[in-house]
Amino acid sequence: MKKTILGFIRLFIGYFVCAIGMVMTINANLGVSPWDVFHQGLGNVFNLPIGRASIIAGFIIIFIDIYFGQDIGWGTIFNMIFIGIFVDFLMLNRLIPIFNGFFPSLIMMLLGMLVLGYGCYIYIGAGFGAGPRDGLMVVLTKKTNKSVRFVKNSLEIIAIIIGYFLGGSVGMGTAIMSIAGGYFFQFAFKTVKFNVAEVNHRYIKEDIRFLKDKFIAVEKGEV
């Protein structure tokens, strides 16, 4: 129980760090992130705000994860909900500064990508499953034996292309993040000697199986 509680604490710390990194890239004002280009495009098609489009995209990507064999954990579900909540909290309370100059904004964006990489390390390492997009990165890293950098860059470039043709906006920062994002993630993971392919996650199906076995044991009078 203590291990589980500490794991969930780590999970939510990771989400908060990810939210800080995301807000840093947003406040840099150099262009939305690659996935947000996709969310914008999806929102344009279905006339939805970007936050709701992001949730819908998350559900779609979960099904893609399952297709490729990536199991779903509680962390996958919580990721879609709480990172958005933390992002709104940081932005509404203006806890992270906004820069208008090009070079301060560029530094903010680059640091944001690095912070986001460490945030992903913290929450994925908790072992409750990766978020929908990170889960796709993890399962494709395992299946292709390619580097995190290569897989992440490839996914984000695809997201930009689809999002652009759906009407999403692309800025200079978007291009930088799509190219450099994978390098920053790989650097962050290497500094803490973290290999996403070696993480043993606890998935929802395992908890359901555990509860089912407990229920059967109670019915048989074995507990």
Automatic annotation (TrEMBL):
Keywords: Membrane, Transmembrane, Transmembrane helix. Signal peptide: none annotated. It comes from the Bacteria. The chain crosses the membrane at residues 12-30, 50-69, 76-96, 102-124, 157-185. This is YitT family protein. The lineage of its organism: Bacteria, Bacillati, Bacillota, Tissierellia, Tissierellales.
